[in-house]
């Protein structure tokens, strides 16, 4: 069985939207889940966050990073994926928290931000606040892919101030924290930013739950590649996560091991270019 | 006529210096001539102890007699009465601890090479297109089989033969369980595993890959949809050492090392996408089959020095003897009586060395093996750039976490009765999910037992 690609288009910077038909997966996706894709027969298993799951389709935001993401982007005739597996991981509890904040500054985080905003704003008693950071106005996604229309309160920031507030979401978030307007904070995106987020919210004692993107292989709890340390205890991000309490995570470990395959990834890119599969 | 004066026949193998550089199968199998010669060694005991040693009680003397007479089809049919995966078991069973250890010939000389003969007939059948010719009387009732390791494969085949509508669900993108993702190509070529999975298809089993029960399909849904369920979810969750240094880059669980190499074919990187980083000095902790597989993969991935670091001695190593010897022939160095204390890293977080402590053997422990005791102040450092932890695995949690009502043992394995029934109506389990780290043949036997129990349940109503 193959999975039909129904949409693939650039949405900003090096990010593109990928939409595939996967009815059984789509029906079950909840905030906190992710999916695993295999793009080609010899492909790796890559984890992806989901932006939207509707009408039997799931949409994702993919960054053109290395071999897999670039080759898929460049492949005009690729109309199917080999596998779409999921939902994987543990969904978060859907309930009334009060003021729910989602912060994001990178592709996967923006996808999660959309899905969380869509779901949490509909839960009675929640006030959904969404914050999204982009480097400059050129990288901002079209409005239909932002969480803007889905939440109750929205902040767009650019690092250079070309649109929206100037700076990173961390600065605006600090204001909300000082005003005591956050009951729970979810976050996704750049890992070092999530580390800063944890440092920021810790003194306020506001629950801060973030997506960890450790490198996965099987994503079914059998290899240990995705291990992270939560208050010193080993957890597997693919089955115990991928969302964890940011204030308890060992970020130095996460960041160090995320870079483990850098050299091999560069080699894969080279090869991909030689085969003229990547741009 | 049996002839005990014939020596045990050696099976042709790739030479160690050749096979160090490739992932092709090491053991090449008997020729018909060698097989017949070896079969003639069997003295056809009136009371064959070898059968007692076989977990699924293959009629060993009978199938060997067929081989000695040149009736390979007769031999294969005999084996297949009890063992549906002889091509796999002939390659991976620890025969020296099972049937062959019981062989009477073994008292004075070497036992009959039962495993090699089993493999021979299976390969003969595959080459000649042998088919079991089975007539299936279709039944309406349906059974879900979760997982696709040997327990699930055998359970699915038998249930199908009873006539049930069988759907097999596998979480990964390739079916076969450990046979597919764990045991390397050079020991068990994947075309043999794929062949068995293909046979499932042909038998009419609906094989659904990429389907995680408990995530993609809820367990309650599954139970609602099928009349009975078999759980063969295995024990694939990695164990770590819980020592300092497990965060370092270059430290893998054996499962990660093997899944990258075998399932994801990292040895063909970058043609295949998944990479593996195997350094020049590799230390594998443990001395079971998994450790041997990891060490031998490391050799093939180009490591200069590969060490098995084991807290007991060669004699107690749980690996199949043949594989331990193959590993040593390939240049793997067995370091006995050492136990890891911590793994040491470079400033940028890569494995640099391991600190080991010397051990000595004391009185036997509950496993009957001599207990290793650390020798005080004997710690020393050994330089390594890759560490593979091969200490065994635990039951897969992914599924169990989702079904808290399913009774488990204190070790986390699924609790079953002698019919392999769990505490849930119509739900049966077997293989590593029930036994912890066991063997292919025990898993296979469980699959068959469970199929019989499920058949009885579906015929007679509630258990
Ligand atoms: C839970 C989760 C959700 C994710 N969501 C998204 C998303 O919504 N959009 C998106 O673009 N990316 C997402 N990722 C990351 C994505 O899986 C990687 O970017 C992708 O695998 C890169 O593959 P590549 O061949 O293009 O790049 P490569 O050159 O192979 O890798 C580039 C970088 O991506 C990371 N990476 C590589 N392989 C993996 C892997 N198997 N698992 C995790 N990270 C890896 C590493 O940091 C690596 O340095 C997510 C990862 C996780 C764990
Ligand atoms: C590296 C290695 C080498 C070995 N060597 C030998 C040997 O030489 N000889 C020997 O006899 N034994 C050996 N063993 C042990 C042997 O492989 C196992 O005992 C046997 O495979 C167990 O079979 P099983 O059917 O119980 O499960 P497994 O083979 O473990 O298969 C379980 C399957 O279930 C799937 N699964 C789990 N959860 C779900 C879910 N929720 N939904 C769908 N699918 C799911 C898993 O993905 C997996 O594919 C070895 C094991 C390893 C790891
Ligand atoms: S990815 Fe293998 S255990 Fe999580």
Number of domains of chain A: 2
Percent of residues in β-strands of chain B? 15-25%
Count of the separate structural domains of chain B: 3
Bound molecules: flavin-adenine dinucleotide, FE2/S2 (inorganic) cluster
Classified in CATH, the superfamily of the largest domain in chain A is Nucleotide-binding domain of ferredoxin-NADP reductase (FNR) module
Q: On the 0-100 scale, what is the average pLDDT of chain A?
A: 93
Could you explain how this protein is built, in words?
The complex is a heterodimer of chains A (279) and B (463). By secondary structure, chain A is an alpha/beta fold. Chain A folds into 2 domains: 86 residues, Translation factors (Elongation Factor Tu (Ef-tu), domain 3); 158 residues, Rossmann fold. Chain A contains 7 helices and 17 strands. In chain A, the strands form 4 sheets. In chain A, strands 12-11-10-9-13-14-17 form a 7-stranded mixed β-sheet, sandwiched between helices. In chain A, strands 5-6-2-1-7 form a 5-stranded antiparallel β-sheet. A 3-stranded antiparallel β-sheet of chain A has the order 4-3-8. In chain A, a hairpin with a 7-residue loop joins strand 3 and strand 4. Chain A is globular and about 55 Å long. The two termini of chain A are 28 Å apart. Chain B is an alpha/beta fold. Chain B folds into 3 domains: 113 residues, Alpha-helical ferredoxin (Fumarate Reductase Iron-sulfur Protein, Chain B, domain 2), CATH 1.10.1060; 162 residues, FAD/NAD(P)-binding domain (3-Layer(bba) Sandwich), CATH 3.50.50.60; 152 residues, FAD/NAD(P)-binding domain (3-Layer(bba) Sandwich), CATH 3.50.50.60. Chain B is 36% helix and 16% strand. Chain B is built from 19 helices and 16 strands. In chain B, the strands form 4 sheets. Chain B has a 5-stranded parallel β-sheet, sandwiched between helices. In chain B, strands 6-14-7-8-9 form a 5-stranded parallel β-sheet. In chain B, strands 10, 11, 12 and 13 form a 4-stranded antiparallel β-sheet that branches. In chain B, helix 2 packs across helix 4, helix 10 packs parallel to helix 19 and helix 14 crosses helix 15. The longest helix of chain B has 21 residues.
């Amino acid at each position: 069985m193959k999975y039909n690609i129904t949409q693939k288009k650039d949405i900003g910077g090096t990010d593109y939207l990928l939409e595939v038909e996967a009815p059984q997966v789509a029906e079950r996706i909840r905030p906190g889940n992710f999916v695993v894709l295999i793009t080609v027969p010899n492909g790796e298993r890559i984890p992806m966050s989901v932006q939207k799951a509707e009408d039997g389709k799931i949409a994702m935001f993919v960054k053109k990073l290395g071999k897999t993401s670039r080759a898929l982007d460049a492949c005009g005739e690729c109309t199917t994926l080999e596998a779409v597996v999921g939902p994987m991981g543990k969904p978060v509890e859907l309930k009334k928290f009060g003021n729910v904040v989602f912060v994001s500054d990178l592709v996967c985080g923006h996808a999660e931000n959309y899905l969380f905003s869509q779901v949490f704003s509909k839960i009675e008693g929640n006030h959904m606040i969404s914050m999204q950071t982009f480097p400059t106005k050129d990288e901002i996604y079209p409005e239909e892919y932002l969480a803007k229309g889905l939440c109750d309160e929205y902040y767009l920031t650019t690092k250079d101030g070309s649109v929206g507030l100037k700076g990173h979401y961390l600065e605006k978030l600090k204001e909300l924290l000082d005003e005591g307007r956050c009951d729970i904070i979810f976050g996704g995106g750049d890992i070092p930013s999530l580390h800063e987020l944890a440092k920021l919210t810790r003194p306020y004692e506001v629950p801060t739950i973030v997506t960890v993107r450790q490198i996965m292989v099987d994503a079914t709890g059998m290899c240990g590649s995705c291990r992270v340390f939560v208050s010193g205890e080993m957890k597997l991000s693919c089955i115990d996560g991928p969302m964890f309490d940011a204030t308890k995570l060992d970020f130095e470990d996460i960041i160090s091991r995320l870079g483990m395959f850098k050299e091999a990834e560069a080699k894969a890119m080279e090869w991909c270019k030689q085969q003229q599969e990547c741009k | 006529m049996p002839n005990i004066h014939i020596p045990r026949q050696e099976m042709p193998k790739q030479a160690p210096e050749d096979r160090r550089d490739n992932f092709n199968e090491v053991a090449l199998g008997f020729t018909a001539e060698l097989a017949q010669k070896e079969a003639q060694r069997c003295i056809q005991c009136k009371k064959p102890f070898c059968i007692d040693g076989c977990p699924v009680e293959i009629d060993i003397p009978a199938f060997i007699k067929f081989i000695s007479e040149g009736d390979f089809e007769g031999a294969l049919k005999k084996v297949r009465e009890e063992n549906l995966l002889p091509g796999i078991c002939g390659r991976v069973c620890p025969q020296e601890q099972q049937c062959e250890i019981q062989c009477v010939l073994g008292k004075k000389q070497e036992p009959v090479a039962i495993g090699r003969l089993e493999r021979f007939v299976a390969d003969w059948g595959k080459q000649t297109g042998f088919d079991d010719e089975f007539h299936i009387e279709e039944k309406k009732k349906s059974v879900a089989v979760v997982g696709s390791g040997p327990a699930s494969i055998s359970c699915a085949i038998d249930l199908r033969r009873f006539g049930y509508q069988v759907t097999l669900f596998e979480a990964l993108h390739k079916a076969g369980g450990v046979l597919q993702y764990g045991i390397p190509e050079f020991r068990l070529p994947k075309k043999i595993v794929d062949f068995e999975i293909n046979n499932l298809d042909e038998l009419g089993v609906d094989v659904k890959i990429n389907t995680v029960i408990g995530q993609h399909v809820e367990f309650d849904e599954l139970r609602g949809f099928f009349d009975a369920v078999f759980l063969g979810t295995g024990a694939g969750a990695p164990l770590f050492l819980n020592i300092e240094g497990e965060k370092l880059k270059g430290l893998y669980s054996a499962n990660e090392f093997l899944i990258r190499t075998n399932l994801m074919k990292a040895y063909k990187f970058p043609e295949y996408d998944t990479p593996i980083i195997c350094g020049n000095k590799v230390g594998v902790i443990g001395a079971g089959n998994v450790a041997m597989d990891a060490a031998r993969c490391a050799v093939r991935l180009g490591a200069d020095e590969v060490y098995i670091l084991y807290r007991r001695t060669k004699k107690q190593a749980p690996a199949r003897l043949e594989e331990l010897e193959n590993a040593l022939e390939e240049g793997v160095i067995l370091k006995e009586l050492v136990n890891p204390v911590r793994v040491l890293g470079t400033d940028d977080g890569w494995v640099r060395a391991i600190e080991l402590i010397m051990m000595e053997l004391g009185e036997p422990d509950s496993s009957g093996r001599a207990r290793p005791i650390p020798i005080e102040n004997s710690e020393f450092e050994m330089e390594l750039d890759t560490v593979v932890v091969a200490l065994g695995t635990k039951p897969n949690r992914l599924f169990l976490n989702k079904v808290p009502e399913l009774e488990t043992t204190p070790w986390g394995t699924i609790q079953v009765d002698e019919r392999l029934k769990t505490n849930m109506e119509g739900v049966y389990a077997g293989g590593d999910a029930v036994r912890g780290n066991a063997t292919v043949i025990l898993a296979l036997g469980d699959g068959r037992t469970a199929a019989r129990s499920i058949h009885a349940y579906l015929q007679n109503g509630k258990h």
